[in-house]
Amino acid sequence: MEKLKVTFYPYNQTIEVEKGKTILSAAAAGGIYINSACGGNGICGRCKVILKKGVVSTKPSGMLSVKERENNYYLACLTTVQSDLEVEVPPESRLSFDNLSQEELSSQVKNFSKPTQQSSYKSSTAEAFKNLPLVFKLYLELPPPNLDDHISDLERLYRQIRMYHDIPIMQTGLANIRQLAETLRLADWKVTVTLGKRDGTTEIILIEPYDTSQRNYGLAFDIGTTTICGQLVNLNTKEVLSTKMIYNKQAVFGPDVITRIVYAQQDNGLEKLHQAATEGINEMIQKFIQEKNIDLNDITCILCSGNTTMIHLLLRLNPTYIRKEPYVPVANFIPAISAGEVGIKINPRGLLFCVPSVSSYVGGDAVAGVLACGMDKEKELCLLIDIGTNGELVLGNRDFLISCAASAGPAFEGSGVTSGMRATVGAIQKTRINSFTKKVEFSTIGGLKPCGICGSGYIDILAQMFKAGILDRTGKIINQKDWHIRDTQYGKEFVLVEKQDTAINADIVINEVDIENLKRAKAAIFAGASILLRHMGLDFKDVKKIFIAGGFGNYLDIQSAQIIGLLPDLEKERFIFVGNSSLYGARKILLSCADMDKAKEIACKITYFELSVEPGYMEEYIAALFFPHTDLSRFSNINI
Predict the structure, then answer these.
(1) Is the whole model's pTM more than 0.90, yes or no?
(2) Which of 30, 41, 310, 323 pairs with 585 at a CA distance of 20 to 30 A?
(3) What Cα–Cα distance (Å) separates residue 254 from each residue in 17, 165, 197?
(4) What is the pLDDT of residue 118?
C-alpha cells in the first residue's frame, strides 16, 4: 500500500499514512486531535481543516458553507489522502489535551479538599486495618531463624505481619517467593512489605530490602466520557499532592457512550478506545511523577471511577451488550487486577481497583458520588444529579436508594454546539443580556477575550434570551430589531460576540440547532428526575437536599437553570454543589478499605430504574422540551 505524508499546521508535524485514509485518522495516528463530536460520521461539521497543498478525495457535505468551500475547507472525516498533503487545523477545530485550567480543576475538587484522618499502622484491631488504604507498606524486622525457631521464610514473614494486623488470609506470587530467601538475608532480615486487599484476601505485592515504607503513593481517577480527572495521593499521610485533568482522548471516536460502543464493534475499534484511555492516564501519571519528583515504582495502586462503559473500555471488556436489550454489562464488580495487565504504567506489580457499578447505565461514578455526598447515611430525602454526558440520578436516603440514567449528551459540556467549549480559560461562563443597551454582557474564565461558551454560560444565555423575548418557549429565535440575528443553514442564529471582539477571530453564536441540543439535554435531566420521584410516589417538594455534581462548580446560576427548566422550582438553599463527586468518592475508597466495602454495599443497595420502559416517561420528556415546561404551574415562583 502506497505511503503518503500529511503535514499538519500549526503543529508542524508530519504523519505517514496509507493512501485513502481520512485526514481525521491521519491526525489521530499522530496524536493530533481534531474536534469530531459525531465520531467521524460527517454529521457534526466540527472537524474542519484547510487544505494548503495536495490532492484529496471528499464526499459532499451540507456542513460546509459556500464561502468555506471556496477557501479550501474540508471535513477531515470525509476527506481521504490522495497525495502528500499540507493541512491547517483552524482554531475552532483544535481539541487540546493539555491540562485544563486551574479554574476548572478547582471547580472539580474544591468542595472535597480535606484529607481523611490518618490511621495508625501500629494496631492489630480489625477496625484499624479497615481504615488503611487499599495498598499500604509495612516495615518489618524479622528475627533470624535458629534451631529453636526454624519455620520457613514465608511463614516467618506471615507471622511477623500478623503481629501488626489480624489478617486471616494472606498470599503472594511465585516471583516474590523465589526472591524471598536472598532478599531477607541480604537485608539482614529488615524488609518492607507492600500489602494490598484483593476481595477478602491480603496479598503481599512487593518485598523490598530495608525501610521504604515512607514512599507509597496511589492514584485516584474519574474517567468521564468527556474528561479524565486524576489525583496523586500520599497513601501514608493521605495528602493530595497534585490534581490534573485532560480531555478523554476517546472523544475523537464519538461524543457519548453509545457512539463509542458502536465504534468498539468495528475492526480493532475496542483496542483503539482502550489505548486512548490508557494513553491519557499514562501521560497524566508521567506529569505527576515529574512534577513531584517521585519514582514510578513507588506508585503501588490506582483506583478508577467511571460510568460502566468507560470502565469496560479501560479494561478492554466487550461493551456490545450494554446497549442491547436487556442491557447487560460484562461485570459490575471488577476484582482487583494488575495495573500492568491493562497497560497502566505504575509499579509493575501495582494493583488496579475499580469502583463497582450498578447497571449498564449507572456506573461506579454514581456509586462514588453517593459515597462522597453521604446520601446513604442521610435521614432526609436526597437527590443526586450528575449533569454530564451520561447523566445519572440517584434518589434516596439511609433507607433506600434508586437510580436511573438520563442521557443528556455532551451539550452542557461544550460539545455538539457551535461555539461550545469546556470551562477553560477564555470560556464565557456568565452572561447577561441588557435589554436597554442592547448589549450582551459576559464574563470569561481567566478574564481573557472569549473563545467560546461553556455549560454554565449556555444556561445563562438561554435564560437571558428567554427573558429578553429573543427566544420563545419552543426554542425558536424571534427576530428583533437592534439584535444581531441572521438566517443560516442551522436556523436563525443569535450573535453574542462579534469576531473582532473574540480571541478566535470568529463570531461566537448560538443557533436553533444548538438550542435544540441544549433543550433536549435539559429535558432529559428534568424528566428523568420527575419520573424517578413519581415512580416512588414522591414530588420535588419532598426532596430536602439536591446535590449537583459535574463540571459546573460554582459557575452554575440556580435561577437561570430554573428559568429554562433544568432544575425544579425549589428554594435555592436546597441545592448543594459538590463538584466532581466521582473523583472524591474514588479518593475516599483508595484511602480506606472500609470505604471500598461501603461502596460495594451502596452498589448492591441501589435499585436501577429503567426510564425507557416507564409509562409516562416520553410524555414527561416532551413536556420538558419547552422553556421552562408546558406546565407553568410547576415553575410559578420563578421570575421570568
Answers:
(1) no
(2) 323
(3) 22, 48, 36
(4) 37
